[in-house]
């Protein structure tokens, strides 16, 4: 796991030349951690005779006093072993900080690492390798892994949005169509009539089949013959008048004009 301290600097080794690269993250590191970085750099120089130090400040746009103190500590350790130091500082703002501390009078401040090697009296191109902390290799490996993961995620996203890529099928968007006014599209791409259209067609066919052949072939309208309607008079309804009590419903055979009791 890369800590905040390890991510704030890089220490590279090029033969007898140690290259210390200070990163912008170092501005957020506490003074005690910066002192620990200085101790690590000095330990890497312990086995070297007449060490050459290149301090690369090119990643920085700002440099605080703690960074200046770190460089001064490394410079004094190199001087104690008859070594030399050169500083790469292409940005004017950072270089102005070194000038205010009058360090431009004791250090060679240049714009590139090749110029720094020339200022130290070294010849040939550099072939930098990382030291035991492996910060540079970790950084490169991290970028490679991040790139691979990005490609994989992009591929999965494309497949998720277009499943037809795997099935070799063209996925066409489905457009909602009202069932009563349009046809239905089948899976094969052909248009199928809606249910209402099929029903109307069947009814029309049944109507055509029920018409007699003569009516279908005759162009003249059929003559309508009136059918005589027989009318019948209703039968008379027999009505009976009520008969007074004491009288008989039977018809009298006698004289109707005779007095009663005769």
Indicate the proportion of strand residues. Answer: 5-15%
Q: Percent of residues in helical segments? A: 25-40%
The residue-averaged pLDDT reads 70
Task: Write down the oligomeric state.
Answer: single chain
Q: What name does CATH use for the topology of the domain at 6-133?
A: Transcription Regulator spoIIAA
Specify the structural class. Answer: alpha/beta
> Strand order within the widest sheet?
5-4-3-2-1-6
Shape: elongated
Q: Biggest sheet: strands, sense, closure? A: 6 strands, mixed
Strand runs, count: 8
Distance between the termini: 152 Å
Name the features.
262 residues; alpha/beta; six-stranded mixed beta sheet; elongated
What can you tell me about this protein's structure?
With 262 residues, the protein is an alpha/beta fold. Among the domains are: 128 residues, Transcription Regulator spoIIAA, CATH 3.30.750; 40 residues. The chain is built from 8 helices and 8 strands. The strands form 2 sheets. Strands 5-4-3-2-1-6 form a 6-stranded mixed beta sheet. A two-stranded antiparallel ribbon has the order 7-8. The N and C termini lie far apart (152 Å). About 12% of the residues have low confidence.
